[in-house]
């Protein structure tokens, strides 16, 4: 079973990075000033049919209710109060008395309470809501009037989890290191097809056995049951209506809830929207095209960026990617990877690992830029930056090549929910397997670079809870309920066309989108769409146009390109340029850029040495131990970043082709840099 593209939002990663590195310029963000323009076919809003009264409902405070439900501070989310409730295993069969536990985390409104704002977040399926919660997305006025509610859906995290980590790890690692040496890419030979069939069957059998669950019960872990869990919680609290934010897969939960209980939804925000009228096969094929579309756009945009184009050696980025893909498909690249302990691990970089890495970097602006940097480095013979991204995305320990996983994400329930919600194909198990193989072969080549999502059907053919018929869901109309559908034309996981279709079918839908953009567009600090969300929640105000294009995003394809370090120390014009370049290169090391900054961590440098980094009382600390990111320049010493002062300081000794002692500072408030000390026996005192 190949690990599949996820409907996961990167808002969690972005929020962590912004908390830890709040003083760095935000290349992914734009100032909170916006000019929004109606699309040519925008229609005036029918406000009399789509108003929502954000006034207090049944209860003035949720805190007493939480106490009655034995609420306690959430272990992994101290801003939330956690409660665990019992829900029916099967909401649709009253004769079935079996129950399971589902956990909710609540941040009560700080002022006059309007109601609950439920977060179908962060996505997946498989993402834990509570441990991934983040209140910083919302304006203080939203936090004042709404209880922000996160949850772990059944089977995940704190909610009666079902897991088969050993089975998944073995299967995933095998898929990563496998190389297709027969025929063309994809399952195009009888041997490859049979191996994939046997692997999918083995995964399903071993995973269910490892979970220790009655296979028949897996049918009760689909999205329809999750929606009913939300309504059970609403009923326990005592509110007549709720507000819902759904992101990525969470838009499936939100839409399913709204379809089942339209009279209980006050308003809804869908961000990175799935079209539930598509069946699993249609959705998978659309996602294949979505990822390929974004990758192609990012590579083409590199050609128009002076620094990116130069790093590619003047070649077209699309050609560089295709050449690398062709190279690793014929023969994986042998490497020695620098470890955090200063040693090196040997391995080979495969075509599957390249596709996996490329896909996962397409979700957001800075990850796309980092992929371009890694691709440019690979073109120059340095595969280490690409490996950094691969190891990080795949959650693999580079020292042991063991799958460590993401503690906030359930790989097990990702597949289980997808296969429970839809059959992907119809007929007997053998017929569904054959249809999947045929569909995979039909799509192979029509999507030139990133494909394979349709093979989800192969796994689902053997999954015990997969229905025998494809899903046939009716369009969501939801009259009288305002719905903001947030969208981006360069969303790889939930393609733009799906969100647009959902918005156009809604009776009171408002389509707000970015030309370009990322997977889910709320919470990046742009007034469009963030202000529209706040206006709806706090004032009950809907947009004055049915379709709005956000124009306040400074960058919409990838963030400001940060040039790679030169291959030689001779390419630096002066010591200040050298230190500025090293500072930025360290900042964009994936291990550092995406760190949660909860504890000390270590990272190996490309050509030897290490950096130990972690939190301090005032910000961040760094220890450089003969760290060589450019051949011939090894850094040893210490660094610090003071969040309050906005000053980064690096006090280092230089060894190698150059020798000296330098103190470098960067003022985040002014952008000024300076360096003092000695280098190669000469005094240094530069600033700009």
Compile the SSE list and pairings:
Blueprint: E1 7-8, H1 11-20, E2 36-38, H2 63-68, E3 72-74, E4 77-88, E5 99-107, E6 115-120, E7 123-124, H3 140-145, E8 146-152, H4 165-177, H5 190-211, H6 223-237, E9 242-247, H7 250-260, E10 265-271, H8 280-303, H9 306-311, H10 317-330, E11 333-338, E12 344-349, H11 351-360, H12 365-379, H13 384-394, E13 396-397, E14 402-403, H14 411-421, H15 429-443, H16 456-462, E15 483-488, H17 496-505, E16 509-514, H18 527-539, E17 547-550, H19 575-587, H20 590-593, E18 601-604, E19 610-615, E20 619-630, E21 633-642, E22 647-656, E23 660-667, E24 673-679, E25 682-687
Parallel strand pairs: 6-8, 6-9, 9-10, 10-15, 15-16, 16-17
Antiparallel strand pairs: 1-7, 2-17, 3-4, 4-5, 5-8, 11-12, 13-14, 18-19, 19-20, 20-21, 21-22, 22-23, 23-24, 24-25
Helix pairs in contact: 4-5, 5-16, 6-7, 10-11, 10-12, 11-13, 12-13, 14-16, 15-16
Largest sheet: 11 strands, mixed
The number of strands is 25
Instruction: List the uncertain runs.
Output: 1-49
CATH architecture of the domain at 37-160 and 223-274 and 482-550: 3-Layer(aba) Sandwich
Overall pLDDT, averaged?
90
CATH H-level superfamily of the domain at 37-160 and 223-274 and 482-550: Alpha/Beta hydrolase fold, catalytic domain
